[in-house]
From TrEMBL:
Protein's name in the database: Thioredoxin domain-containing protein 16
Span of domain TXNDC16 N-terminal: 28-131
Highest taxon in the source lineage: Eukaryota
Gene: TXNDC16
Amino acid sequence: MMSSSLNVFRVGISFVIMCFFYKSIVDSVPELSPQKYFSTLQPGKASLAYFCQTDSPSTSVFLQELSEAVRPLQEYGISVAKVNCVKEETSRYCGRGQDLMKAYLFRGNILLREFPTDTLFDVNAIVAHVL
């Protein structure tokens, strides 16, 4: 009797761990170089991109919310990417200071909108602004 309860408990814990692992894989924001990001854009398909130099504590909250917004945005056909800007990259979206505090919405390779990250403060705000 005790061992069957223990087995049920183990199965339950394993299931919960698998769900967390699956969610982290599915909802993670892909990290791309600017060149790779722009080469993957498809005509007519919308994409939200956040360009950044390095992770900082001020962007970690935004990146967490962005990763949670991946699934709802994918349901509307909108892909999400984090674009890592390195010093040798010359993309105009890889600016400095306030330029790095924005997310950009593209349809194909056409820029539709730019959003200051302080307006994208949670999942609902991200989805609402993008839609």
